[in-house]
Each structure stands twice: as structure tokens, then as C-alpha cells.
Amino acid sequence: MKNLVCGAIVTVSAGVIIAGNIHWNQKISAQAEQIVQRDTSVIVEQPVEIEPEPTKEKTPQQTEQEKKEQELAAYTQNLPPELQRKITEASMNGKSLNLVIYGSESSSTEKGAWPDLLNQHLIKTYGEKFFNLNILSEGDKTTVEVIRTNSFEKVNDLKPDIIIFEPFMISDNSRKISMKNRIGYIQKIMDTWKKKNEQVTILLQPSNPIYSATYFPKQVEEIKNFTKKNNITYIDHWENWPDEKNNELKQYLTTSNLPNKSGHKTWAEYLSQYFGTEGQVH
After folding, report:
1. Pick from 169, 162, 105: which is nearest to 134 by CA?
2. d(CA 172, CA 141)
3. Among the listed residues 64, 119, 118, 125, the one whose alpha carbon sits nearest the alpha carbon of residue 92
4. Averaged over 43-53, what is the pLDDT?
5. Mind spelling out the 3-state secondary structure of the chain?
6. Which one has a higher pLDDT value, 16 or 209?
């Protein structure tokens, strides 16, 4: 009898376990189906296509301004960034720039000299009233004489935006002014200009080369190194001349070692290309 009761208990227990397991599996399956149903019920929105705004046609004024900006960028590409911005801003605002050429008798005020030839090409490229050019020549003065008389301060009276400065290197060389003094005086002259007008752009260039000179090329190289150390823009127009040891150089100079017609043309051509002017110097 005991065995019969025990068997019945075992059978009932097994049935309960099996039934519970079936019920649990069914519950898990139902929950899984609900999760799947929720996931599949999510609505995926299709991207809305936005029609591009119609391109607005540029006005003639805008087209002309863009053309002018592109031309200026091409003309001024050889210039230092500071001067590029100055020219572009002045052009866009309809203003003119005061350009002063200051130097020795090599920077002559005469018609046909390199400053005059450069001015002609600036007018052709930038227009007649864009650059107000003034030429100040100290003749055969040395740097010492210019400093002693403070004559370099005349440049400030012209309220320059740009100064092309040609120090008095040939006179200094012939009268044996020491390089230490020369460089110190050149720095003083430029510092005075900058103190009066912080926004002025100064471009420094050498005098013309001299045929078969011994010390002069070395002095010019010292000035060039000085400009590099002090972040001063140096215009190396000597690149456009025959070598100072080349007999051909004599064809570009007078007997006083100043530029003749060919020398002025050579000098002006380099500066014209530097400022991006159109055409050739004649």
C-alpha cells in the first residue's frame, strides 16, 4: 500500500513540474512576441527631400566687383600680404594710396627715370588716381648728411601709405661711411616714419649696381641681411641687372655710376613686375 501511495505522489509531482515548465515557456514566448510586435510597430520616417533654393543671379555690380577682386589678386601676388590687403581694401572702398619714393640721385625725379616709368605702368594697371606718387630725391647726400639735417622727415609730410626707400648707398660707399653707422641710421629713419604712422608699409631696395666694385656688393649684402633679420621687405631689383663683374653692366650706367636710359628701364621693369603692372617698359 505504501508503495502505491509513493508511486502516486511521484506521478503527481512529475506532472506538476512538467505542467509548470510548459506554462513558463508559454509565458516567455508570449513576452517575446510582444517585444517583437513593439519593435515592428516603430514607424520609420522617410527623409524629406528639400528642394534647393533657386540660385540668385548676381547683379552686374557684384559681377564687376568679383572681377576686380580677381584682377587685384593677380596683380598683387608678388607683394607682401600686408600690402596686398592695403591695396585690395583701398580699391574696394574707392580710396587712393599715397606712394612715396625716397632715395638718392639714383631715384631721380626726371622724366624717363625709373620712378617715372613705374608710375606710368601703375596708372595703366590700377588707374590714374589709385596711387598718388611723390618722388623725393636727396641727390648725392650721404646717410650722415640726411640724418644731420633731418631731411628724411619730409616724407612724413606727404602722409604716405607706402614708402619705397632707396638708401644713399653709392654716396656712403664713395665717402667711406661705416656699415655700422649706415645700418643704424637706416633703422632710425624707418623708426621715425613708423612712429609717425604705424600703418605705413616700407619697402627697402638697394641703389643700382656698380661695375667691377669690390666692397659695394658686400655692403649691399649686409643691408639685405639686415632686412631679413628685422622682417623688412627687401626689393632685390639687382636680379634684373647684369652681374656687377660682367662688362655688359657698363651699358646700363653713366660714367658717374648712375642708371642711364637702359638702367632706368631695367630697374623699372623689375618694380613693374613686382607690383603686377601690365605691359612692358619702353
Report:
1. 162
2. 8
3. 64
4. 60
5. CHHHHHHHHHHHHHHHHHHHHHHHHHHHHHHHHHHHHHHHCCCCCCCCCCCCCCCCCCCHHHHHHHHHHHHHHHHCCCCCHHHHHHHHHHHHCCCCEEEEEEECCCCCCCCCCHHHHHHHHHHHHHCCCCEEEEEEECCCCCHHHHHHHCHHHHHHHCCCCEEEECCCHHHHHHCCCCHHHHHHHHHHHHHHHHHHCCCCEEEECCCCCCCCCCCHHHHHHHHHHHHHHCCCEECCHHHHCCCCCCHHHHHHECCCCCECHHHHHHHHHHHHHHCCCCCCCC
6. 209
- Comparing 17-26, 76-85, 106-115, 189-198, the range with the smallest average pLDDT is 17-26
**Cα–Cα distance, 88 to 112 (Å, whole number):** 29
Contact 97, 130 (CB under 8 A): yes
- Report all structural domains of the chain as residue ranges with CATH numbers, in order of start: 72-274 (3.40.50.1110)
Cβ-contact 49, 251 below 8 angstroms: no
Quote the distance between the C-alpha of residue 151 and its chain's center: 32
117 in Cβ contact with 264 (< 8 Å): yes
Which strands form 201-204's sheet, in the order they lie side by side? 131-137, 97-103, 162-165, 201-204, 233-234
Rg (CA), the chain: 41
Q: Who's near 44: CB < 8 A, 6+ residues apart?
A: none
Q: What is the pLDDT of residues 162-179, one digit of tens each?
A: 999 999 999 999 999 999
